[in-house]
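Project outcomes to date are best conveyed with an example. Our students and postdoctoral researchers have been running inverse folding experiments weekly, and each run begins with a structure described purely in tokens. The record below, which covers 131 residues, was selected by the lab manager from last quarter's runs and is presented without edits.
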């Protein structure tokens, strides 16, 4: 009878030890799985953050380049258009001045001619108005 009792007690101790070992193994496996999942999630989040940061940087660089190109084009167009406008205005103003002077002179000459050559031989004479 004693042998059986000892065997039963040893069997119960073995069962308890096996249960403890199984619990420890399960806990270790769960901890390892949780750590691996956390590491994977952290790495994925960091990669996503890096990708998002890279995308934001690329978008910002593209926007800055586009804005700089647009500003340069606008400045060049404005400067060229302004220069063209200034040149055109200057030329037009110069032409207007010349034309006005010529017109004034021509009007003066015509007035003088009409005034002084109606009974003469229509020779071109300088205007006496001094304009």
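After processing, the design step wrote out the following sequence:
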């Amino acid at each position: 009878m004693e042998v059986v009792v000892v065997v039963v007690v040893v069997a119960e101790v073995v069962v308890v030890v096996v249960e403890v070992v199984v619990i420890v193994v399960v806990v270790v496996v769960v901890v390892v799985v949780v750590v691996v999942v956390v590491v994977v999630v952290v790495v994925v989040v960091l990669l996503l953050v890096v990708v998002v940061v890279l995308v934001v940087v690329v978008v910002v660089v593209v926007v800055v380049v586009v804005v700089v190109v647009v500003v340069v084009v606008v400045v060049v167009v404005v400067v060229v258009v302004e220069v063209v406008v200034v040149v055109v205005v200057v030329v037009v103003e110069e032409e207007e001045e010349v034309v006005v002077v010529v017109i004034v002179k021509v009007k003066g000459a015509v007035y003088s001619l009409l005034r002084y050559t109606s009974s003469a031989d229509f020779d071109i004479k300088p205007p006496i108005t001094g304009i």
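The chain has one helix and no strands. The CA atoms of residues 44 and 50 lie 10 Å apart. The training component of this project remains on track.
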